Amino acid sequence: MSLLPESLASWIVIAVLLFWFVGAYNRLVRLRAAVLQAYGALDAALARQLDFVQTSITTGPPPEVAPTGESLSTIAPLQAATTQLSTLLGATRTRPLDAGVMAALATALQVWINAWRRQHPDDVTVFDADGTLSRPAQLMPAGASGMNGMSGVPAAIEPIAWPEPSAAAEIARNQFNQAVGHYNAAIAQFPALLVAWAVRLRPAAPLL
């Protein structure tokens, strides 16, 4: 049996490599699109939280409750944190896959949450990632974000006590973080990392 001509064999190898490259690229693009879609839901949930807090600031305490010096001293930091978070949220909408921008958003979010907790210390109910009611925040063990050993996907150990008593934001945050984890794991795998390097796909950052 005669061997294939050298030129034909080369073209077959090139065709196989091209087919593999296109397939791997399409998979990475789908995972990237899933991150962007998940961020859209997260952005909407964060915007609702901001609206809730801004309304509470604008409305203020009931007329029969006279504001105290302590309450007035916590409103200004909450307003400043709300403005800062709103600004960073607007910037993140254009670059949700930028790890630096997401890190800045995460920092602003924590400052905002802390400012809300100082203004409303009794609002400590949190929700788990699946939307179920969780324990009061002060009873939860201190922890940081870890990794799911089975999939390498980052998992938020400690839920956030969101100002608006709704599970939507925590669910959206979890779904975004899961999408980021799958995307980052895919572009770090060999040989797909060669495709990611060739088309300049960079790791995204979860919102922790």
Walkthrough of the structure:
There is one protein chain. By secondary structure, this protein is mainly α. It has one domain (13-60, 68-198). Helices cover 62% and strands 5% of the residues. It has helices at residues 6-59, 69-94, 99-119, 168-188, 192-198, and strands spanning 125-127, 133-136, 146-147, 154-155. Strands 1-2 form a two-stranded antiparallel sheet. A hairpin with a 6-residue loop joins strand 3 (146-147) and strand 4 (154-155). The longest helix has 54 residues, at 6-59. The relative contact order is 0.15.
- Alpha-carbon distance between the two ends: 62 Å
- Give the SSE string: HHHEEEEHH
| Helix percentage | 55-70%
Task: Output the number of helix runs.
Answer: 5
Write the layout of secondary structure elements.
Layout: H1 6-59, H2 69-94, H3 99-119, E1 125-127, E2 133-136, E3 146-147, E4 154-155, H4 168-188, H5 192-198
Antiparallel strand pairs: 1-2, 3-4
Helix pairs in contact: 1-2, 1-4, 2-3
Summarize this entry quickly.
The chain has five helices and four strands; from the N terminus they run H-H-H-E-E-E-E-H-H. It has helices spanning 6-59, 69-94, 99-119, 168-188, 192-198; strands spanning 125-127, 133-136, 146-147, 154-155. Residues 62-66 and 137-153 have low confidence and may be disordered.
Which descriptors apply to this entry?
4 strands; elongated; 5 helices; 208 residues; single chain; two-stranded antiparallel sheet; mainly alpha; two-stranded antiparallel ribbon
